[in-house]
Amino acid sequence: MEEFLRTVGYIGIFAIIFAESGLLIGFFLPGDSLLFTAGFLASLENPPFSLPILLVGCAIAAIAGDSVGYAFGRRVGRKLFQRENSFLFNKANLYRAEAFYEKHGGIAIVLARFMPIVRTFAPIVAGIGTMEYRRFVTYNMVGGLLWAAGVTTLGYLLGSVIPDVDKYLLPIIIVIVLVSVAPSAYHVLKEKETRDALMASARRLLRLSPTR
Questions:
Q1: In 129-168, where does DSSP find H-type helix?
Q2: Mean pLDDT over residues 177-198, rounded?
Q3: How far apart are CA 205 and CA 58, in angstroms?
Q4: For residue 63, what are the contacts with CB-CB under 8 A and spacing of at least 6?
Q5: Do 40 and 155 form a contact (C-beta atoms < 8 A)?
Q6: 3 state SS of 117
Q7: In the prediction, which pLDDT does 147 show?
Q8: Is-contact 95 173, C-beta < 8 A?
Q9: Per-residue DSSP letter, 84
Q10: Rounded to whole angstroms, what are the CA distances from 27 to 41, 75, 88, 154?
């Protein structure tokens, strides 16, 4: 991760944060670990990055990415549910999203920032669910600032306070990933339909695996 960030620089970091925040293809990107590592690198004696530039740039990229995701959901998202139901696109999910954002829209946008995969789809679903744009923008800015600035600052502070923190960087990143993924995994796996679908997929993969 350190070498990767040094290679891609500011533009690469901002582009990844933007893509993960609102583009469907960005759901697999490592936003949490990227922000933390970038903040850590900014704390080094000869830092490759400036903390203020990271904070401002990542926050703008996160907020802009969510805005693009919302626009996509508002203009195109509903068409995804006009085709036959599937594991990823189910009409019932659209109706659940509308009810969820009507009741918890603001809090959902903020909390989703700290949940991988969910943060990519949250603004899209908000747009599909016709959440009022002015309301979305407010919480989008709050969530973007808390996530981008908070995780980056955490990496910077740990790098500044803990001696030889680079020796523990990999375990710290692993813990961050596990903690951030846990809420999403819990909410996904607690649904019986989801568990059944995952088990069915696993059985199909086992049947397709070559025998030894």
A1: 133-161
A2: 58
A3: 39
A4: 21, 140, 141, 144, 145
A5: yes
A6: coil
A7: 92
A8: no
A9: -
A10: 24, 20, 13, 23
- Specify burial of residue 89 (Cβ count, 10 A radius: 0-12, 13-18, 19+): middle
Confidence of residue 168 (pLDDT cuts 50, 70, 90): low
Rounded distance between C-alpha atoms, residue 98 and residue 88, angstroms: 17
Evaluate if residue 61 carries a pLDDT over 50.
yes
From CA 91, how far away is CA 94, in angstroms rounded?
5
**pLDDT(81) > 60:** yes
In whole angstroms, give the CA distance from residue 189 to residue 180: 15
Residues in the chain: 212
Hunting for tokens 């903020």 — which residue is that? Answer: 110
Q: Would you list the domain boundaries of the chain?
A: 2-208
With CA atoms as reference, report the closest residue to 36 among 58, 18, 20, 56: 58
Q: The tokens 């996509």 sit on which residue?
A: 72
DSSP state of 162: S
211, two tokens: 């025998």
pLDDT at 51: 93
With tokens 């085709």, the residue in question is: 83
Rounded CA-CA distance 87/75 in Å is: 22
Task: Output the six-digit token pair for 124.
Answer: 């899209």
> pLDDT digit string (tens) for 94-151?
566 666 666 776 788 888 888 777 787 788 888 887 678 888 899 999 999 999 999 9
